[in-house]
Amino acid sequence: MKREVQIGLLTIVALAICYVGINFLKGIEIFKKSTTYYAHFDNLSSVTVATPVIVSGFKVGTVRDVKFDYLRGYGATVELALDPHVRITRESLIKIKVNPLSGSELVLSIADSTKRYLNEGDTIPSVSPTGDLLSVATEQILPAVNNMMPTINATLVRLNTLLNDKQIDTMLMSLAASTAQLNGMMANLNRTSSSLAPVVANVEGLTSNLNTFSRQLTAVQLDSMLLALQKTTDQLQQVSAQLRSRDNTAGLLLNDPSLYNRLDSLVGSADKLMRDLKENPKRYVHFSVF
């Protein structure tokens, strides 16, 4: 009987040690005093028992229990075991932060704008996650990629068929030959351009000489015109001086009034003679009849 009691006590102690050890490995401190709060989330995002609760980067508690909300049919209520020294105001918020390496954690943001605190057993206002990078990749990107796989496979098959076609090799060889010909043409064009450089220089020199000759010719023609105009002006001045002078016939005709009067009188006499000749022709013409 004494031996059976010892075995029973050892079994109870072993079970207690296993329970404490398992909870310790989960991060649940059984013998540490804690304050219980609750939070409700529509999507837990991998939040489980022993998920840490973080305030300003410091762990202040863990998730003690998770219960599914059967009344609404979605979401879950999370039981939190927090440090008794943490005082939570009514405007505080708790949200889920997903870390791809360490898993999910609950981040508690305590508002200090008010002194109204929650009591033990109250529900902390929560913000349900809208979707982290991992969930977005799992729920949206991977299905889209999966739907695109048939199209990608068909494209790869067509590309493989196109690459195995012998006509592609022929086209590539023709393209290579055309490229070689084009390179040869460019080389010939470069050599031609190099040989044309002296010709271009000669043409530029010839153009410069023509410009110089044209300017000189223009200057010579202008000088000749000016000289001819000067000679013509001098001659006109000489004629004008002779016309104003009385030592020549033209000057006398233009400047001597007596000569003008005599010429006018002569013209008047000639006019009278002509009228008299018309009126009395017998006076001047005699006919004799044999």
From TrEMBL:
**Could you name the domain of life of the organism this protein comes from?**
Bacteria
Q: Where is the Mce/MlaD domain positioned along the sequence?
A: 34-104
Q: Which residues cross the membrane?
A: 6-25
Matching Pfam families: MlaD (PF02470)
InterPro entries for this protein:
Mce/MlaD, MlaD_Phospholipid_Transporter
Ion transport keyword on record: no
Q: List keywords of the entry alphabetically.
A: Membrane, Transmembrane, Transmembrane helix
Q: Which residues form a coiled coil?
A: none
Q: Write down the PANTHER family for this protein, in alphabetical order.
A: INTERMEMBRANE PHOSPHOLIPID TRANSPORT SYSTEM BINDING PROTEIN MLAD, INTERMEMBRANE PHOSPHOLIPID TRANSPORT SYSTEM BINDING PROTEIN MLAD-RELATED
Protein name, per record: Mce/MlaD domain-containing protein
Origin species, per record, is Porphyromonas catoniae ATCC 51270
